[in-house]
Amino acid sequence: QINILRSNRMKEIFELDDLVREFKLEFSSFKEKGNKSAGTRARKKLSELAKYCATVRKAIQEEKNNPAPTV
Fold it and tell me: What does the DSSP 8-state code read for residue 9?
């Protein structure tokens, strides 16, 4: 599980950006050049994005329901 909200790193945010960038690259290659393999890779990236978003959504919900104690 990705602990995006309690992390001091921006790694997870950059990972999301990378997934979107990779999808756009593959989708562009599929649409503009007719590269069918790129279409398959674009669908795979969308699947990875969906899983990532679900994980982040769950982490946000958990943080909302169980806020870190303040000292």
Answer: -
